[in-house]
Specification:
Helices cover 82% and strands 0% of the residues. By secondary structure, the protein is mainly α.
Amino acid sequence: MDFNIKEKEKLLWFIVLVTLVGDLLTTTIGLSIGLNEANPIADNAIQSSGMLGLIGLKFIAIGFSYSIGRRLLSEDYRFVVPLALSIPWGIATISNTVIILITIFG
């Protein structure tokens, strides 16, 4: 299957959405079973505004990255923006899941 750049970018933005939801869901579950947020910026957002603070922080990251990427990157390289968001959020989702499972099942 041969994807063009636009199709790759759309797929990567979908992956951003999936990893965003995964990170938010696993963070919520982790906090509900007594775990702590390891990211100090995210923790501050949660402490001050709850999960809505974290959601807001994530959407600020998306909006800022999208805006800067559109201005600074040529069309051929704009896929880097969703890639840069989805990789750490995907890692966080996997890490959170492992920590949750270890906490629950030992």
